[in-house]
Amino acid sequence: MAHPSHDPFHLAFSEPSWDDLRIFLAVVAHGSMNGAAKALGQSQPTVARRIRALEETLGIDLFQRGPNNLELTGAGRAILEAASPMGEAASIVARTASAHRPDPDAPVRVTATSSVALFLSLHSAELHKAAEPVEIAYIPTRRKLDLASGEADIALRMRVLPEGTDELVARKVGQIAFAIYATSEDPASVIAPPEDPTLSRQAAYVAEFAQGRTIAARIGDMPIRYQAAKAGLGAAFLPCWLGDSDPDLKQVVMPEGDLIEDVFLVMHRRSRNRPNVMRVANALAALFKRSQKALAGG
To answer: Where is the HTH lysR-type domain (predicted)?
Structure first.
């Protein structure tokens, strides 16, 4: 490809437009200019023209063009690595702006660990009434979603208060206890979590309990681990509200110390101005207060 100038000073000071980089990222993501055009709502010739303009601005070929495919060149891969964070930043900016001008009818997004999310699901009808007429979107994950950028509206987090920002407000809503359960009082096998015991207190606790016993399986997903324990596969680490409620399971080890964790309800300060979010937050706090005994393994 011929470029209009090979003047090194011209190349050094030629800055690509964000629009062209956005189109480049879309072409890579969709594997073709046609796919990118459809995703962006533009014509294929427009996308091809903007990619050529970007290549001319940068003074490099970004793609090797085959009869039916595009492949990134070495330079193209380097530009992709440099531009990808810009695409992610643009996405965060859009979410943050949306969080500051929320749609009053948007679902209230609640994020929690799978243990807590499963507990909430048992009371979802009650929480739905508190949120009406809006919906609640449950996001079960161990990853700490960013409340400031609008990834979630309410977070239920375990044990440790958020640090490093004055924009978040938190209140302790209760405790949740964990214990080891099995179908027999002296299980010979254990269902262990998949992570390294040095990476979490729970994994370390199960590893200690497993000494002298057989590891029957490694299951990270708590609901699946519960079903496996209930089927008699072995002893499993479960929240007490679940294990104690199942007549097929026996509590092998009592909850104590690190097995009892504080639960905090965390929101961004601006959520106080959103009636729907506050209704759901208050309903969650009331649910935890009313369920305190079951959650704490009492």
So the answer is: 16-73
Ranges of the chain whose pLDDT falls below 70: 1-14, 68, 87, 89-104, 146, 148-149, 159-166, 196-199, 298
Which of 78, 100, 122 delimits the end of a domain?
100
Say whether 237 sits in a helix, a strand or coil: strand
Buried b (16+ CB within 10 A) or exposed e, 41-69: ebeeeebbebbeebbbbbbbebbeeeeee
Q: What pLDDT score does 161 carry? A: 58
pLDDT of residue 11: 43
Q: Looking at residue 203, what is its pLDDT?
A: 81
Question: Are 167 and 289 members of one domain?
Answer: yes
| Both structure tokens of 96 | 């943050």
pLDDT tens per residue across span 80-103: 888 888 767 666 665 665 555 566
Written as one letter, the residue type at 166 is D
Residue 3 in domain: no
Total structural domains within the chain: 2
Is residue 216 within 8 A of residue 233, CB to CB? The reply is: yes
1 within some domain: no
Q: Could you give the CA distance from residue 92 to residue 88 in angstroms, rounded to a whole number?
A: 6
Q: Are residues 223 and 189 in the same domain?
A: yes
**Residue 70 to residue 78: CA distance in whole angstroms:** 16
**In this structure, are 66 and 143 located in the same domain?**
no
